[in-house]
Amino acid sequence: MSDSPSARPAVPVLxxxxxLQCPDCRSALADLHALxxxxxxxxxxxxxxxxxxxxxxxxxxxxxxxxAAEQGQAWPYVEAxxxxxxxxxxxGEPFLVEVARELGLDAEEFDTALIDGRHILIVDADQAEGKxxxxxxxxxxxxxxxxxxxxxxxxxxxxxxxxxxxxxxxxQKA
Length: 174
Prior knowledge:
By secondary structure, the chain is α+β, with helices and mostly antiparallel strands. It contains eight helices and four strands, in the order E-H-E-H-H-H-H-H-H-E-E-H. The protein has a single domain (13-162), classed as 3-Layer(aba) Sandwich (Glutaredoxin).
């Protein structure tokens, strides 16, 4: 193992700056599924939180996603919430707990986590890092240091991610 800051991870990492009350992030799921199908475990999709102030339940949803990660179901939870954004808009935190229950997760633990704020620091750190690297909206992707903003348009982003991932994977083989 190298302590060198230039050492590459074992597989390329795609950071996905997401907000669970964001309709554009819901649209991006198709691209994320396609990337997952194409690369499998050769590309790590890493959820990063960037709750937007205009969505009043986004911060709680990010914390709930972290609780889902603690319980081993981050992406299924994220997909379930994004698939029903209108319900989150209307119902807020009770909806977040109900989704956990529907997925067979420990809903009581979700409720407690939302009350005690145990995941606030993770969400705050993601948001601060996002701001530091220039994330202004969601979804935004970062792969190999390149930031790709999907908040305005998703057009061409999956192809660009695939170009970068293919290059990184080829470099690893060389």
